[in-house]
Specification:
Number of helices: 2
Shape: globular
Oligomer: single chain
Order of helices and strands: EEHEEHEEEE
Number of strands: 8
Distance between the termini: 36 Å
CATH superfamily: Hotdog Thioesterase
Number of domains: 1
Structural class: mainly beta
Strand order of the largest sheet: 3-4-6-7-8-5
CATH architecture: Roll
CATH topology: Thiol Ester Dehydrase, Chain A
CATH class: Alpha Beta
Strand content: 35-45%
Length: 167
């Protein structure tokens, strides 16, 4: 399996140094597990398909009928719980945070959510595509992100996620 590396050219006054810097723009599930502490059954991101350092990431979750939450939510009509959709968006945001040089080291946790709305059900067989954009970071400990989750191009969930660094 190949990993996409995008090369960006930046101005460089030192003519002896290379002018190009490789920036990783995708992450496999194994690489995500190196960045985030979540594990089965709570690891909710299968892949990062787009990443812009310090700004945003887009991740996917392939929703499977075999996931434990579908045993009780709801028998005969499985629907992914909204709180797990929000958590999946937060985990995509966690990838952005763990890659920021000025905020590395420590565990980021939810501090709140604002304006979260659910627009359509997410069911087994769906691929949830989540884009999370970093809005602000304060004192390298607190911040806010905006998340959007879609299935087949249709909005499933959106809202703002607040986080705090726990020592």
């Amino acid at each position: 399996m190949s990993t996409l590396i995008e090369t960006h050219t930046a101005p460089n006054e030192n003519l002896d140094a290379p002018a190009e810097t490789a920036i990783k723009t995708t992450f496999t599930v194994e690489e995500i597990h190196q960045l985030l502490p979540h594990r089965y059954p709570f690891a909710l991101v299968d892949r990062i398909i787009d990443y812009v350092p310090g700004k945003m990431a887009t991740g996917i979750k392939n929703v499977s009928f075999n996931e434990p939450q579908f045993q009780g939510h709801f028998p005969g009509r499985p629907i992914m719980p909204g709180v797990l959709i929000v958590e999946a968006m937060a985990q995509v945001g966690g990838v952005v945070l763990t890659q920021m040089a000025d905020v590395q080291g420590g565990l980021f946790m939810f501090a709140g959510i604002d304006g979260v709305r659910f627009r359509r059900p997410v069911v087994p067989g769906d691929q949830l595509v989540m884009t999370v954009e970093l809005l602000s970071v304060k004192a390298r400990r607190f911040g806010k992100m905006r998340g959007r989750a879609e299935v087949d191009g249709q909005l499933a969930c959106e809202g703002d996620l607040m986080f705090a660094l726990v020592d």
